[in-house]
Amino acid sequence: MTELTALTLTDAVEGLRTKRFSAEEITRAHLEAMEGARTLNAFTVETPDRALEMARASDARIARGEGGPLEGAPLGVKDLFSTEGVETTAGSRILQGFKPPYESTVTANLWRDGAVMLGKLNMDEFAMGSSNETSAWGPVANPWRSRGSNASLTPGGSSGGSASAVAADLCLGATASDTGGSIRQPAAFTGTVGIKPTYGRCSRWGMVAFASSLDQAGPITRSVSDAALMLRSMSGHDPKDSTSLPVETPDFTQFVGRDVRGLRVGVPREYRVDGMPAEIEQLWEQGVAWLRDAGCEIVEVSLPHTRYALPAYYIVAPAEASSNLARYDGMRFGYRAGGGTLTEVYENTRAEGFGDEVKRRILIGTYVLSAGFYDAYYLRALKVRRRIADDFDRAWETCDALLTPSTPTAAFALGDKDADPVTMYLNDVFTVPANLAGLPGISVPAGLDANGLPLGLQLVGRALDEGTLFSLAGALEQAAAFRAKPERWWS
Amino acid sequence: MAVDAETVRRVARLARIAEPEARLDPLAREISGILGWIEQLNEVDVEGVEPMATAVHATQPLREDVVADGGDPARVLGNAPRSDDGFFVVPKVVE
Question: Looking at the partner chain, which of A311, A331, A348 has a beta carbon nearest the beta carbon of B90?
Fold first, then answer.
């Protein structure tokens, strides 16, 4: 049954609709693949009973000639999305055993459209990390390995479980979330497609909050069309999230394969960072050539404040996190530690429940928001954020989208960048600016490095212009013809 | 700006995180390293720039001030570390 797990989401949905195979068959094939791939540690919870129940309901709907746009398609869910009655921990010990009495809007939209839930996917704790190593449930392994090596590589983070599961054919697609690059960086590291839509496109209701002004949901899939299909279902206005945009969701799938002749693609000169490997530089030039050959006009643009995006992010994100994570006090849900006084119970609960990176960010966030430092750090970061957003607005006067590398390197070894937090933060240098400005960004697999590891190219677009991104991403996908798959060492 | 162990102790107290004495110096070093790297923001001219707290330009939506959900204490209490008779049970707040 392996052929059923190797299908794209788009082909699988078509096969289900035309009854070439049943939802139960394709679901069983995936459950089997998951069982054989536990060494990847991609899933934190498997929900086989629920999956089969949902699959049978899909089959019944298909038999009646009904069914939604994702009817019968087995998907994975990042453990950041609350799923009713199914343990949701966001990779944290403090939420161990937490079973939400509600369903996130994004996942509810997927089930409404007929998708089948296979289980919950591992992630960095509270999405704070770029390697999946901060998860309380252990790191996820990347299905990809360097040629001739058995060393475990990171799938990236924070959506490491989502990326690993999609790359290893354990699910047809997965939900993910992106606060500073957590969809696009793991997609690049695993040869998959990942899109962070415009801030407000997807409801954040029922997503475990990290930094609310930056967090945005999106899919990780194996093709650009799949990403368009899945994002269409995930999107939509939700009155329960006041930052959810009251706009119609276009049929994103219609944009893939569209003629890109005449589109102006900007190449930001400031993204040529020091120490960037020659391979990344070459891939970027290759991407420029592909889009030029497809008929795009290439223009050089300047985003002078882009180099300040990462330090601004490391004020804004921890500040918002310190506020959001104040809710974990051990009183109403989650882990509660012992202690003599109420304050001791709070302090012990949070000391024992949170991991080191989360604690570090809460402390930084608390510090930059504290009396006497607010103006110097937090307010200044918000002003720099405005400068960064203004740079993009100016760029849109001369171009329709930007092309950049997704990451400054290919996947690195687990344990490689533990020692210095700033080294780890630099992973997100190309992805963070789009979060600060609220813009959509997509990573498309574009080639392999000398070690046989995938590399991605990123496109960033205007707010609410995912359509143009899907057209350009489709053109890149076609030109790159990325067909490589990781060797199946895990099963 | 360098952060010392005393500052970490104060901030950890504000954040309600128990940090053992032995962690204060290492944390001070880590946080100082991160803040030192962040200091490059001082190079940016932000004179007269409006702070950007959100990427959403729309005004905050309003709705009628009516109860839209709730009335289900069993579900609310379902994940409580301790509950009794429809209440959360918490450590003594007032001595």
Answer: A331
Q: What is the per-residue pLDDT across B1-36, written as a single tens digit (0 to 9) for each? A: 689 999 999 999 999 999 999 999 999 999 999 999
Cβ(B56)–Cβ(A390) under 8 Å? Answer: no
Q: Is the dihedral of CA A404, A410, A414, A420 positive or negative?
A: negative
Q: List chain B residues with CB under 8 Å of A100.
A: 79
Interface contact A383-B46, CB threshold 8 A? yes
Long-range contacts of A53-60 (CB under 8 A, 24+ apart): A54/A23, A54/A27, A54/A111, A54/A115, A54/A116, A54/A117, A55/A22, A55/A23, A55/A24, A55/A26, A55/A27, A55/A28, A55/A116, A56/A23, A56/A24, A58/A16, A58/A23, A58/A114, A58/A116, A59/A22, A59/A23, A59/A24
Counting as low any pLDDT under 50, the low residues of chain A are 1-2
CB burial of residue A240 (10 Å; 0-12, 13-18, 19+): middle
Note whether A243 and A199 are within 8 A (CB). yes
Tell me what pLDDT residue B58 has: 67
Q: For A376, which DSSP code?
A: I
Q: What angle (nearest 5°) sits at the alpha carbon of residue A170, between those of residues A166 and A175?
A: 45
* Residue A1 confidence (pLDDT): 43
* Between residues A329 and B95, the one the model is more confident about: A329
Residues in chain A: 491
| Candidates B37, B39, B61; nearest CB to A422 | B37
Which CATH number is A471's domain given? 3.90.1300.10
| pLDDT at residue B95 greater than cutoff 80 | no
Residue A34 is predicted with a pLDDT of 98
Q: Quote the pLDDT of residue B60.
A: 79
Here the tokens at position A164 are: 């690993």
- How far separated are the first and last CA of chain B, in Å rounded? 40
Helix (H) or strand (E) holding A267: strand A264-268
Task: Tell whether the model's pLDDT for residue B93 goes beyond 90.
Answer: no
Domain extent for A244: 1-491
* CB-based contact B63 A239, cutoff 8 Å: yes
Taking the CA of residue B63 and the nearest CA in chain A, the distance in Å comes to 9
In this complex, how many residue pairs, one in chain A and one in chain B, have their CB atoms less than 8 Å apart? 158
What domain count does chain A have? 1
Strand segments (E) across A339-437: 401-405
**Residue A77 C-beta-side C-alpha neighbours within 13 Å:** 35
- C-alpha distances (whole Å) from A356 to each of A389, A424, B21, B84 are 31, 14, 15, 33
